[in-house]
Design brief:
With 183 residues, the protein is α/β, with parallel strands linked by helices. The protein is built from five helices and five strands, in the order H-H-E-E-H-E-H-E-E-H. The protein binds zinc ion.
């Protein structure tokens, strides 16, 4: 595979970043659990920003466990398909051994685009938790709503978990990029 070394280094980095994040344990309320997992996704979104990528991070969980995680890698891996969610879905299928991902929840800091919403639908992920909405490309209600079409499966979508942090991260990234192009 092309970029094999980059992908291996990336996996190590993701594991290292996640090992520093307090993850949920049994006994937390569902809201507390959502917030903890979203904070893990935010750590990955910050890593994306540091690498010059649009800051989006994603973790897929089952119970109290993270099954897979990734962040936007379009620039680093030179691929239009390397969005945080699409990459995390591919890895979760590999790790759980099938194309269906029952009993999982996908946490993502920014509303999924049409491609990633399609990946979520294809993997039949029952629940999606979103940080902030994406007025430019969001496919769970902002630009289009995949859940409004007569498809054979719908994920339950929760918005607004750690939305301010996610928005702040995206705002800072785009401001810095604008300043760079203006100077
Ligand atoms: Zn996407």
């Amino acid at each position: 595979m092309k970029y094999e070394r980059e992908i291996a280094a990336r996996e190590e980095k993701i594991a290292r970043l996640l090992s520093s994040v307090p993850l949920p344990v049994e006994g937390l309320t569902p809201e507390e659990r959502d917030e903890r997992f979203m904070r893990a996704a935010l750590v990955l979104a910050r890593a994306a920003a540091e690498e010059g990528e649009v800051p989006v991070g994603c973790v897929i969980t089952r119970g109290c466990e993270i099954v897979s995680a990734d962040y936007n890698g379009r620039e680093a891996l030179r691929s239009a398909l390397w969005h945080a969610e699409a990459a995390a879905v591919a890895k979760a299928c590999e790790r759980l051994g099938g194309w269906r991902l029952p009993d999982t929840t996908l946490y993502v800091t920014l509303e999924p685009c049409p491609m990633c919403a399609g990946a979520i639908w294809n993997a039949r992920i029952p629940r999606v938790v979103v940080g902030t909405k994406d007025a430019r490309a969001g496919a769970f209600g902002s630009v289009l709503n995949l859940n409004s079409y007569p498809l054979n499966y719908r994920s339950e979508v929760t918005f607004g978990v750690c939305a301010d942090e996610s928005r702040a991260l995206l705002g800072a990234f785009f401001r810095a990029r604008r300043n760079r192009t203006e100077n």
